[in-house]
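Progress narrative, work stream C.
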Amino acid sequence: MAANDLFIEVDFQQNRKHGQNICGDAFQLLKIPEQARVISVLSDGLGSGVKANILASMTASMACRFAASNMDFLHCAEIMMDALPVCQVRKISYATFTIVDCHHSGRTRIIEMDSPGFLLVRRGRIVPLPSEEKASPKWQDRRLRFTQLEMEPDDRIVLYSDGISQAGLGSADYPLGWREEGCRDYVLDQVADNPSVSARHLAENILVAALSREPRRRAQDDMSAGVIYFRRPRRLIVLSGPPYSKGRDGEYARMLEDFDGKKVICGGTTATILGRELAREVVLDLRGSSLELPPLSRMPGVDLVTEGILTLTSAAQMLEDEALLRDNNPAAMLVDLMLESDVIEFVVGSRINEAHQDPNLPIDIEIRRNIIKRIAKTLEDRYLKEVSVQYI
């Protein structure tokens, strides 16, 4: 990432229509590091359930690839429409989509077809933007909107399917649904209350708010909310394991002390070494205690101090399956810090701790470096974080 580049945080949340086993919307991300680009696509398939999911997933996948190829998108849209399977009941193939193609410099293009209009949130208000509308010669009823813009630090783009804007449709409180105006006002209130709210939390809040407007909180349609947040990167350093050579303990401590961002220590021995080198007391803290994991500790100037291998293994599992997240759990606190950060640096000590070779420990516990490689890969591939791993 160049010095003046913005970090692009992307996250989305979905809820399937009540009574269906699968969501008929699809959200797909494509990161192209060599071009400093992130492409996000939200697609809403015709109807609901499996058929809608197939339509939406195919559309999102093709849209990502075509956007990345820089081909003429009118022609691409025709190819997509031709490729979609035809619904046996309605005799049409149809899926709406919104494509957001972002560069880390802030240069962005947005392509929309029949989806609710995106929201650009800048300095606490919605900014209207001019767009160019084009019709496909082959599919005259399908019109594409093209928007070009330059994003600024702290700008957000908010996308949602019509299941969000139509939440509560036909109810006494929302006879016409939540509507785009309701979504817009809610987003502005959320940003006003917390100007640094992450993409993840804002998308979650939009989805929860939409569901709360449905009678008995039962979604009448598939719901998807996505947020793309441009900001200066939030940095996190995670130190785990003692250095291979005791002579590097001082260097290890300086890495922690000099880092500009959030700081985490994973490992009792690691905390002891760093506390000694920095002349800081390490105190046991039972506020994050749980039956599964050892408790937290506290050290001045450090945001989180946890046990090592068990906590890291649990964090890896939670990153791979967010359904495992637990409140007031050291691993969940670690995961939350990682997901709220953009650039994450792991500094891994290479000295072997003989306790971790104990055959009585759970069989799925890996050695430290492999656990951190696993975490780093998940953060990069699934959450689009920028991750580095350094061994000492």
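Work stream C, second folded protein:
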Amino acid sequence: MADLNMTPLCQEHQRMKALMAPFGGWQMPIQYAGIIAEHKWCREQAALFDICHMGEFLFRGDTQGSGLEEVFTFSVNSIPVGRSRYGFLLNEHGGIIDDLIVFRLADDRVMIVVNAATIANDYAVIKGRLRGGGLENISTTTGKLDLQGPLSREVLVKAFGPAIGQLPYFKFSNMTILGVEAIVSRTGYTGELGYEIFLPAAKVLELWQLLLADERVKPAGLGARDVLRLEVGYSLYGSDIDETTTPLEAGLGAFVNFDKEFIGKAALLKQRQEGVSRLKVAFRANSRRSPRHHYEICCEGASVGSVTSGVFSPMLGCGVGMGYVKPHLGVLGAPLTIRHENVSMEATVVELPFYRGGSLRV
């Protein structure tokens, strides 16, 4: 406990009697009313998440001449101002150091949003690859709240005006909220219509309380967030992807631009030519049992891989999960057996997302 980082809302979560637990080096709320109830609220109304543990870096300078363009698997130069892009920071072997989003604030300024557990390493890696420009770690002074759910647009329009309602998917706007500069981005991690709000950490509590004053909004913890993201097939860093996996193995090659230079490109080109030795697949269980991280994946009695993420899906009424298997099993309809000690469940390889009824692009 003493070694864990705390978000600006930690005391507020405790006051609200949230179940707290360590996550990525932070003390975070796992649930308030319950994971299933919070999941349902996000799918039907608007759920508020404390995401202040995420990291933010601010880059200033020439994105091309500084070498920033070569740092990620996507082109920073081609991101229009006011837009953001998802992709990867790779090592020389093509392994995923982190998955992240870059926001183009201006021609010579970008914000890089990274995962909580990788903040220090990401900063060191990115800074070490730059030939110019300035990189600043603004994580401790930046707060982040996510409002997600089909009613999130209505809630924010009521609170801050109609401009928010005009934001398309993966576009953001600089605006004044509670008297301070903020970034409101139409992005999220739930598969629902939603927004991520970045503002000074000192203002997070005020914004949290303001949004929760709306009866359509309730708080949700990381437990519900994990179920929500897995139902739509989003990968979790540290579980589904890490430095030992490549985007090609993870089925995320769409976020790699091979028309540009980036660290790890040579390794990925070689892997693309030779073929991957394992492949991430999605599977649906034939029961309500939850497949869990590290459960064994078997086929015809032989072990062929392991589960990286798994939950009971309230929207589908069964267990769903992802894991890595031998490539020949990455075929839709392939039968699998998920095992752990006395637990055994039959499953089938399916296409992502598991759940397709979200309001993400409404």
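The radius of gyration is 20 Å. No further action is required on this item.
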